[in-house]
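Annotators were shown the component list below and the corresponding predicted structure, then asked to write short factual statements about the assembly.
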Amino acid sequence: MRCDYACGTADHGIARRQFLGGLAAGSAAGIVGGLGTLTQPAAAKELATSQKRVLLFFMSGGLSQLESWDPKPKTDTGGPFRAIPTSVPGTHISELLPLTAQQMHHLAIVRSVNTKENEHSKGRFMMECGRRQMAGAKYPHIGAVAAKALAPENATLPGHIHITPGGSGGRSDNAAYLGPKYASIILGNGKPPQNSARAAELTVDADSRRNAFRRQLNNRFTARRKTAETDVYTYNYEQAQQLMRQGEVFDVSKEPAADHERYGKHAFGKHCLLARRLLENGITFVQVSHSNYDTHNENFNFHLEQVSEFDRSFSAIVNDLAVRGMLESTLIVVMSEFGRTPRINSRYGRDHWGKAWSVVLGGGRIHPGAVYGATNKNGTAVSDKEVDHGELFHTYLQAVGLDSTQSFHVGGREMPMADPAVSAIDELLV
Amino acid sequence: MAADPKQTHVATQWKHDSRFICCRFDPQGRYVFAGAEDYAIHRFEVDTGIKVTLPEHDCWVRAFAFTPDGETMISAGSDGQLVWWPVAEAQPKPQRTVAAHDGWIRALAVSPDGKILASGGNDNRLKLWNIADGTLIHESPPHDSNVYSTFFHPGGEFVLSGTLLGAVKQWEVGTGKLVREFDAKTLHTYNGGQAVDYGGIRSMALSPDGQYFACGGLHKASNPLGAVNEPLVELFEWESQKKKVSQISDGKKGIIWRVVYHPDAFLIGGCGGSGGGLLFFWKPDQDKPFHTVKLPDTVRDMDLHPDGLRIATAHYDRHIRISSMTPKA
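Structure shown to annotators:
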């Protein structure tokens, strides 16, 4: 593919329609293409201090809304857990989230999600990409969109990071037409990016000479055959060099022992602390996965284990972002591929349920303390203000100051940032 | 009449409008008490099936225990409270409520002399209570995980606790001192891919001659979230603590929710799960059951009537079933 997106102009990567729609509106400004795309250095500096970020928690397998954000105690579907009050008067959540309950004044619950999808991979795609998965069509992950639209063009660290409980690392294929530059780098089990430390047998001097030679060859080749792929290769090498120089950013052991204790010494606690460290070091998008909620069997025992673990670490990072003044610039999202059936099965399990479940948001322009939408008495259907993945996707983008109705300009085509058939949930935004 | 497990058949069943969780006969054999997903306790008269619903709990009820005289029943569940009830009143009302555990109470047992109640729960504690006044006698140090089961040795000197992670601890009742531990970790699985602990000591029982100690649960948990596992009873020699035999199920799927020794020394296991509802009957020295009964729906709890002939089972399909180990009438 010919590389025509890096045209050298200030507004490359921005569609013909004006993308910086809300720049004059201060913190709600729309920023696409990264701060490097701004022609006014003063504006870039001002925006750098309020660099928008996204922290996404993916509850792999399908978190039960009834054992988390939308409890229905004392109903035929409610299960054994009770509802507890939160820091928002009148709002109750599951007793499995006692620490998060104290942070709910920073967060908003959307209780009326209906994605009509009960299959894991399709549900995940919808929630992460804001569109329904279709053969032959690829859409970028929310993290790729955020990295493309929010990360400074000259960022020295990757803008799109996934921290997962397992896996070996590497780069994903989830940026679609935005290009592999914006695909996620996976920190498997919270480990630094693969091969990010200089091999012991390679001296600094030899490494430097090797890289100089590589640059020389790259420059010669690029002068005649510049393509999107060669650009990405070059970018990745240069970013890797920068990343290797900043290896401590990925070293969560540098965080205070008291914080490790507070977040929990399990893997998820460590991953949340790493997420905080990455966000503080300018990473634009960090996704932390927590597993596993696909509880067809013993739903209550397993949610007790998993949600209790989540509660401690999640509440700690929400509190820390608030205390450090980062919530205004950091959107928090807690999502799954779907919820779980209100009906309790014969094995005390719950199955897949995309018809009526919950997502939690916070930070950025999200209305703190809001509860949006509702389900009926026993949680079997949405009873008020139904929303879907597409509307949520618009809302995420607008919560970090982007005009989600605009498009990326890719290969001469306008690619809408979010599904043009739907729009953001305005009531959730301030 | 002697019990004949090979004649076991469902003799009676009572339908309710909510799924059942647990069941127990009272020591006099007059009633079956059952906890259901409707947060209530239901008392069925064994001879007539007449049902009385006790005033609603604030939680799912998961456990019952009775004083040996059959006059008092104590219930507990996911609200962490113990509730005392008069067993035979026309409409029982709570006599005493005690806030006992932080989180669920999963198991109860009463000492042979009827004076002490043992409770175990999600705060990882075993607690001993004075049944006469509801006061706390002793609280164990924290276990390694949730306490799933409790059991009083018939001699009254020891009480045992079994956990999710497969630890079985034997405590001296008089002093609260830990005496010894049985290694039943084969009844626990940690699945790293799913990041869950699964299994646990779901039930304990001692053979009538005091020789064998049975711990029921599950093994072969290749997919805990999907209920791919098999029932298992680990049988130990009580004195030596050596494992006598692993009592298995010929590949059937499920969890042993309860084990009870029959006075004739065979072990009954109530099993439910993806394999449906099953009753297993094992002899102490054999690994495979000498008889298996398939019930109409998955089992969540089981109890043996004091007459030694009838078995009550609590079912997901909203039935309490009474099976009889006698020829069909």
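Statements collected:
1. DSSP finds ten helices and 17 strands in chain A.
2. Chain A touches chain B at residues 61, 74, 76, 79-82, 165-166, 291-292, 294-298, 301-302, 304-306, 344, 346-347, 349 (CB under 8 Å).
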